[in-house]
Amino acid sequence: MDFAIPPDEQALADEIARYARNVLAGRAAAIDTAGRFPDDNIRDLAQLGVLGVNIPAEYGGVGASALGIALVMESITMGCAATASAVGAHYLATDAILIGGTEEQKRRLLPAAASGNALGAYALTEPRSGSDPAGMTTRAHQEGDAFRITGTKHFITNAGEADFLVVFARSSEEPGSRGVCAFVVEPAAGGVTVSPPEPTMGIRGSRIYEVSFDCRVPAANLLGTPGSGFRIAMAVLDRGRVDVAAMGIGLSRVALDAATAWAQERTAFSHKIAEYQGIQWMLADMAVTLEAARLLTYKAAWARAKGGRFTSEAAMAKLFASEAAGKITDLALQIHGGFGYTRALPLERYVRDARILRLFEGSSEIQRNIIARHVLGAKA
C-alpha cells in the first residue's frame, strides 16, 4: 500500500487545515448553539475548491485522489464537524452523478456544483426505510418525456439549502432493489416540500430534513438506466463511508490534542495530571486507537483509488473510525473532568458530534453485516 499524496493535494489539505484551525474552529460553537447552517464556511470552502475536490478537472473540479478527499474531510472536521457533514452530503450527490450520469449530465450539472454555485443533497433514506433502501416506497411514474416522483424522504442533509437533490425512487413493482431509479431533482422547479429542520443532538449546523415530493422531473434527469438506482446508491455509500471515517479521524485528532494539552497544564495534588500513569495510559490508548483508525481509513481510500469494489474496506474503516471517535472524544472529556462537561470548552460538542458517525451512511450494525458477508464469502 502506498499512502503518498501528490504535492498539490498535500498543499490543499494543509491550506484547509490552517483554515479549519484559524476560522472554522472559531465559528463552530456559535453554529452549534444556533443550529445555523454554516453558509459562510461553505462559501469560503467553495472558493478554496473544496466543493469540487471529488469532481474531475474536466468538469471544473480539483480531481483529487481518494486519499486527498479523505484528508480534506479530516481537515474540515477538525475545525467544524457540522461543516464537514454538509460538504460530505454534497459529495454524495455529486458522486452519484459521477457514477451514474451521462457525459451530457456531468457537463450540465457538475461545474456549478464544483464551483459552489449549486449545493447538492442525497435523498435515499425514508421514514420507514433507513438501512434497508431496497424497501423504499417513493415512486416514479413515467409520463411521456418526464417522470412524476411521489413520496417522502427523511433525515436528508442539506435538503433545505440544496439547489439539487439526487432522489431515489421505485419505477416498477419488481421485488427487492430492482426497479429503483436515481433522479436529479431541482426544488426550484416546484413540487418539493421541505419540512423544518429536525432538532438534533450534534452537528447541529448540518441540518437534516423531511422532504415530500410530488413533482415532474425531465427524463433527461434520470441517472443511469432504469433500475440501476440501487447499484448507484450502494457505490455512492462506499465512497461516503470513507468520508465518514475521515470525519472520525478529524474529531479524534482534535479531542486527543485537547486532552494532551490539558493534561500538561492541569494540576492536581501538586502535580501535572500528565505525570499520573492513569492519565498517560488513557492518552496512549487514544493515540493507538486513532492511529489504527487512520490506517484503516487510508487503506480504504487506497483500495478505492485502485478501482473495483472496496465495500468491505470502506465498511471496516467506517465502523472502526466512527466508534474510535466515540471512545476518544469521551476519554478526552473525562481527562478534562468537570470542565469538559461545560460548554465553556468544546469537549462536550465533540462528544455530541461524534455520536452521529455511528449512525449515518449505515449504522455500526449494518457495517458489521457487510463485513461478515465478506468474511463468510471469502471462506466459502
Summarize, please:
The chain is of the alpha+beta class and 380 residues long. It is built from eleven helices and ten strands. It folds into three domains: 7-119, Orthogonal Bundle (Butyryl-Coa Dehydrogenase, subunit A, domain 1), CATH 1.10.540; 121-230, Beta Barrel (Butyryl-CoA Dehydrogenase, subunit A, domain 2); 237-379, Butyryl-CoA Dehydrogenase, subunit A, domain 3 (Up-down Bundle), CATH 1.20.140.
Task: Describe the secondary structure blueprint for this structure.
Blueprint lengths: L6 H28 L4 H9 L18 H14 L1 H20 L2 H13 L4 E4 L15 E5 L2 E12 L6 E7 L9 E6 L6 E3 L13 E11 L3 E2 L5 H37 L1 E2 L2 E2 L4 H30 L4 H26 L1 H4 L5 H9 L8 H16 L1
Parallel strand pairs: 1-4
Antiparallel strand pairs: 2-3, 3-7, 4-5, 5-8, 6-7, 9-10
Helix pairs in contact: 1-3, 3-4, 3-6, 4-5, 4-6, 6-7, 6-8, 6-10, 7-8, 8-10, 8-11
Structural features, described:
The protein is an alpha+beta fold. The chain folds into three domains: 7-119, Butyryl-Coa Dehydrogenase, subunit A, domain 1 (Orthogonal Bundle); 121-230, Butyryl-CoA Dehydrogenase, subunit A, domain 2; 237-379, Butyryl-CoA Dehydrogenase, subunit A, domain 3 (Up-down Bundle). Helices cover 54% and strands 14% of the residues. The chain has eleven helices and ten strands. Strands 1-4-5-8 form a four-stranded mixed beta sheet. α3 (66-79) packs across α6, α7 (277-306) packs antiparallel against α8 (311-336) and α8 (311-336) packs across α11. It starts with 6 loop residues before the first helix and ends with a helix. The mean pLDDT is 95.
